[in-house]
Write a sequence for this structure.
């Protein structure tokens, strides 16, 4: 259920309503839209309790949300949500580019690549300190040391950080460093991880599971939101198909379908979809064309020696080419590449 508040409702009305919702054993979530204030209710299974809310001061209407995902649904919030990460805005109509190495390998490598992507116009720095690897023998990431390196790279470039968290036990640690926590494709349905990340309340970049349906993806976003993380950005990174010419198949069709059902921003990761550098730019453009709010891109200046995913990393010049052509395509679509890059001092 959602409660739509009257335009003249006061903070006191809102407090009283939230109190009543809690008395009923449910959880209220305040959602401030452009021209209306809505309180989403989770924890209920139907419309029971509705009559206890309808007569309260400031309450205009109590509506049942038909979708199984409530807080992520456009029924709850018709206008697009804007997710602010250290001053960078996802979903405001412009294109946000997150770029950096797949993994933090060394301090020098990370700072070098962070400067390369910052100089070429990236808005967020990506890079994994905790890596979910298929092989237990492969490089697993530098852990906390990697987070310290990322924080130093942020200090130098002013770029906010998005970095992956792979298990519930390190959510607090990763949250101390990251501006945005990434949930990887393999963990999209790790519900205990989603709960812990949700409780932290920081912005989240949640990658679509490699075999997840749109509804499953929205239900995972709902886990995050219902536990307290309302600033969720979803990332399409390719799904598993019979294809052998690419690492995955970038499902561009999910972007308009997602936007129809949800108010949350959605970006694409052409690097993990493609698996090879040559096809990253065309996939990125396909994603932008389909309406994506941003890109997540692997960049490396020495990909032959990269510890993770070298073949799909764009070289610095390739990243520059991507930024140039993405800017042109965005302009043609009436968007621009977000230019606001917060200064270090402004973010302190
Ligand atoms: C990543 O972006 O570093 C990553 C591991 O991607 P995915 O979870 O999509 O495989
Ligand atoms: Mn990778």
């Amino acid at each position: 259920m959602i409660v739509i508040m009257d335009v003249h409702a006061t903070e006191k009305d809102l407090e009283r309503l939230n109190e009543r919702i809690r008395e009923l054993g449910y959880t209220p979530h305040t959602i401030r839209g452009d021209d209306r204030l809505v309180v989403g209710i989770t924890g209920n299974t139907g419309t029971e309790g509705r009559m206890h809310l309808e007569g309260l001061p400031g309450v205009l209407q109590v509506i049942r949300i038909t979708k199984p995902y409530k807080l992520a649904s456009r029924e709850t919030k018709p206008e697009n949500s804007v997710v602010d990460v250290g001053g960078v805005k996802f979903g405001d109509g412009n294109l946000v580019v997150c770029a950096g190495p797949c993994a933090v390998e060394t301090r020098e490598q990370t700072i070098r690549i962070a400067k390369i992507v910052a100089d070429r116009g990236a808005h967020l720095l990506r890079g994994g300190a905790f890596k979910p690897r298929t092989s237990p023998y492969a490089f697993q990431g530098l852990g906390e040391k990697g987070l310290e390196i990322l924080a130093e790279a942020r200090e130098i470039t002013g770029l906010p950080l998005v970095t992956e968290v792979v298990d519930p036990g390190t959510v607090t640690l990763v949250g101390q460093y990251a501006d945005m926590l990434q949930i990887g494709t393999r963990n999209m349905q790790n519900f205990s991880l989603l709960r812990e990340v949700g409780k932290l309340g920081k912005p989240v970049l949640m990658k679509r599971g490699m075999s997840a349906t749109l509804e499953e993806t929205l239900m995972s976003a709902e886990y995050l939101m219902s536990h307290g993380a309302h600033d969720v950005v979803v990332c399409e990174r390719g799904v598993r198909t019979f294809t052998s010419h690419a690492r995955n198949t970038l499902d561009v069709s999910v972007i308009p379908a997602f936007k129809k059902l949800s108010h949350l921003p959605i970006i694409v990761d052409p690097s993990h979809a493609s698996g090879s550098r040559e096809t990253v730019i065309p996939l990125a453009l396909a994603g932008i064309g389909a309406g994506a709010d941003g890109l997540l891109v692997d960049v490396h200046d020495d990909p032959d020696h990269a510890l993770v995913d070298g073949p799909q990393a764009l070289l610095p010049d390739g990243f520059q080419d991507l930024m140039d052509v993405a800017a042109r395509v965005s302009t043609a679509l009436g968007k621009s590449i977000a230019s606001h890059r917060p200064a270090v001092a402004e973010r302190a």
